[in-house]
Amino acid sequence: MQVPLADYPGFNRFVLDWLNGDERFLPRASHPSPGTRASSTEREALANAIDQSNRHWGIFASDALRKWAKGETATVIAGQQVGFAGGPLYTLAKLVTLVKMKRELEAQGKPATAFFWLATEDHDFEEVATLNVPVKTGQLDLLCMRAVRTTESRAVVGPQPIPETLINQLLALYDLDRPGWLREGITFRDSFAELIATLFGNEVILIDALLPELRRAGEPLFRLIEANRDEIQRRLQERSQELEAAGYKEQVIAREGSEYTLLFELDAHGNRRKPGDHRQPERTSTSALTRPLLQDAVLQPDVFIGGPAEVAYYAQIAPLHELLGVPMPRIALRGHALVLPKRVARAFERYAIDPAEVFSSADRILAEREPEGVARIRELTEEGKRELMQRIAAIGELALPADHSLAGSINRSIGHLEFHFNKLAERAIKGMVRKDRERLAATRELVATLYPDGHVQDRVVSWFAYWIEHGPHLVDRLLDELEPDSPCFRIVEI
Question: Which backbone phi and psi does 137 adopt, to 5 degrees?
Fold first, then answer.
């Protein structure tokens, strides 16, 4: 099932226009700025460091990295925060899009290297330590597993150990033997990396954003950013005005309405703070706006695969690539998919439900299928209100000359009566559309699966919950269905 992304609630309007051919702020094809390609020695040193870190996670890609270091392969990259148990479904969608694009290039006779950037320097602990899984308790509900910091902190999350309480909740829910990627004391970074390695083996090479060799390779870029700080701020402000004039919102807003955050410094405890005068590259942390620049300067990807927000980041920072001499990759939108058990998917055909309708409520969906009955209830409600208001007006005409204090009481009564009439009509409509309990239950489950608690499934629901039930079949189905740069999202039956 394909549904236009325009029907996806809250989808970024800039990205929709960009998909439809508007390239004012971001080209669809790459137009590299003049830049100096890293020397073979530097790339080989970085490749060796990446190889060693991947071996630690069970990924053995020495040959692929050696070819990459020599410039013999196309480079495709995506990335995400290191969320507990793999994070939401859209993380898996990025990985699948990455693997699919790599395989398609190789099928065309073009060797390709697929990198996945682990955003270990992110400091949003609550985001990576939250997992929503669907559970059946009479009806489908989301169970939220969450760990919170007990103290205020801006420490980067990748190197932090996963709280035991979070691990125990997951193991108990699925009655799992404790896997290696959830061993005691394991960090968010290592757990995420080892889980991904079990899905994709050596096909995806992981990049730790905090890898010291990566940061050292980025030192020339960090110096350029500092040297051009005022010009960078000016160009970002100009681009912000251009986006606003076109009716778009910038993805990253200037701090306190004045300047954009470009770089941070990490202290000895991994806390982000304002950069000092003598910052070491290993302790330099990028912001949302400069992270893509570091990636593009050091790894020089041919294609970057991102979600809507990341595509919008590139529109905001496009002027900086030219300013800093960093080649811009071709930007591709990740494939979008929601997953649905076949049993639940039958409701679409059985009850003639359009897929785009699920971003609503079961009662509303069913009410639209009872137009005559709903219209008659509303008609009778309005007739009843009119007749009653006429009687109240008549009472007022008789009584008010005798007692003017009745006016306030009559007005209050009218308000109460209108409220109760509307509530009665609402309950009657719900009762009517719920008369077919089987249809109501099926529609509720459909909505709860794809639009739980008013959120689109892929934004909040864990892919692990489906993988633990379906295993490799889940990945295979997504590989079959997902397409980069598609103006539609897929509802994939599993």
Answer: -130, 70
Dist CA 290 CA 317 (whole Å): 8
Cα separation, 88 vs 453, in Å, equals 15
Q: Rounded CA gap, 78 and 196, in Å?
A: 13
Report the C-alpha gap between 354 and 365 in whole angstroms.
9
Burial class (CB in 10 A: 0-12, 13-18, 19+), 215: buried
Residues 372-425 have pLDDT tens digits of 556 676 777 788 878 887 887 787 777 767 666 667 777 777 777 788 878 887
Phi, psi angles (nearest 5°) of residue 26: -155, 120
Return d(Cα 428, Cα 175) in angstroms, integer.
Answer: 44
Tell me how far apart the alpha carbons of residues 373 and 379 are, in angstroms, rounded to a whole number.
10
Cβ-in-10-Å burial (0-12, 13-18, 19+) of 241 comes to exposed
Q: In this structure, what token pair is assigned to residue 164?
A: 């035991």
pLDDT score of 302 more than 70: yes
Write down how long the chain is: 494
Q: Are strands 263-266 and 284-286 parallel, antiparallel or unpaired?
A: antiparallel
DSSP string computed for 321-368: HHHHTPPPPEEEEPP-EEEE-HHHHHHHHHTT--GGGGSS-HHHHHHT
CA distance 427 to 470: 40
Residue 148: pLDDT band with limits 50, 70, 90: confident
Instruction: Answer whether 173's CB lies under 8 Å from 462's CB.
Output: no
Helix (H, G, I), strand (E, B) or coil at 144: strand
> Among 105, 78, 102, 106, which residue's Cα sits nearest to residue 92?
78
**DSSP secondary-structure letter at 368?**
T
Contact 489, 2 (CB under 8 A): yes
pTM of the model: 0.85
Helix (H) or strand (E) holding 27: none
CA distance 375 to 378: 5
Cβ contact 336:305 at 8 Å: no
Quick check: 204 and 196 in contact, CB under 8 A? yes
Encode 404-416: b = buried (16+ Cβ within 10 Å), e = exposed. Answer: eeeeeeeeeebee
**Contact in structure between 343 and 336 (CB atoms under 8 Å):** no
What's the rounded Cα separation, in Å, for the pair 451 and 458?
Answer: 9
Predicted local confidence at residue 264, as pLDDT:
87
Q: Which of 308, 316, 258, 329 is nearest to 290 (CA)?
A: 316
> d(Cα 304, Cα 329) in Å, to the nearest integer?
6
